[in-house]
Amino acid sequence: MADLQKIADGVIKGQAEEVAKLVKKALDEGIAPKEILDNGLIGAMNIIGQRFKNNEVYVPEVLIAARAMHRGMDVLKPMLVKSGIKPIAKVAVGTVKGDLHDIGKNLVIMMLQGAGFETNDLGIDLPPEKFVEAAKKGAQIIGLSALLTTTMPAMKKVIDVFKEVGIRDKVKIMIGGAPVTQEYADEIGADGYAPDAASAVDKAKELLNL
Ligand code: B1M
Predict the structure, then answer these.
(1) pTM
(2) Which atom of ligand 1 is nearest to the CA of 198?
(3) Ligand 1 pocket, 101 CB below 6 A?
């Protein structure tokens, strides 16, 4: 089996240490870091994302694959930096004020990382100002997560504050979380909604025309 296919297979199976070894071997053999990233690590996370969307795998499998992807990234990152590979875009994601749920948000972040985005995990229970701060620091997409019907209005509040400080048109705002819908996104003027972590990657790319 070709080296890149072995790496992708290792990620899909969640074999973190094996992936780290295989990435190192591929680098030693002179395979370009970008090739390893695109066709080994990201390729595998795309497959996992698709299977997750189709309910063929569940949260634990995604978490385990993401962990293996991260181990591979640890080995690859210094080489990527050296060869000047830039992330495809910057996204900051957090859970809105009053809401402590973060499992879904973390999955969204992992899938975005797996797709080559630079991510800023802002945390949970965040006031609107934290999202504004992240946008001012260069995030092109602000991602809001909410799991409670009672915290959904905090998403609108974030959008209102972006308008108040005059930077609403400088960023794309994407929302998600179990009770959130496309209709709600339209109602509050969000730029995008994604029902799950894999779709969040598609939506982020769509919002930035990537
Ligand atoms: Co909470 N809780 N909880 N809880 N909790 C729910 C959400 C609830 C549905 C349970 C129920 O009653 N059946 C209910 C909400 C009811 C409602 O509002 N409609 C509920 C409640 C009521 C509460 C408390 C109020 C309970 C209490 O104290 N009385 C309390 C509130 C605390 C607070 O936030 N202020 C509370 C607390 C907790 C725990 C702390 C115990 C824990 C959270 C731990 C943690 O996150 N670290 C917890 C949990 C685990 C849940 C359930 C069981 C699981 C949520 C989860 O992680 N799902 C949940 C019931 C359930 O869903 N079965 C429940 C898995 C995760 C992968 O899915 O987060 O939907 P999800 O994320 C998905 C998508 O939604 C999407 O992608 C993810 C991956 O596919 N997505 C995005 C998410 N964010 C996105 C952002 C995007 C795009 C997509 O763009 C930026």
Answers:
(1) 0.89
(2) 80
(3) yes
In CATH terms, the superfamily for domain 90-207 is Cobalamin-binding domain (3.40.50.280)
Q: Answer whether 111's CB lies under 8 Å from 45's CB.
A: yes
Cβ of 175 below 6 Å from ligand 1: yes
Answer whether 8 contacts ligand 1 (Cβ < 6 A). Answer: no
Domain ranges of the chain: 2-82, 90-207
Please name which of 42, 41, 147 lies closest in space to residue 94, comparing C-alpha atoms: 147
Q: What is the b/e burial string over 108-138, where b = at least 16 CB atoms within 10 angstroms of the residue's CB?
A: bbbbbbbbbbbbbbbebbbebebbbebbeee
When pLDDT is averaged across residues 93-113 and rounded to a whole number, the result is 93
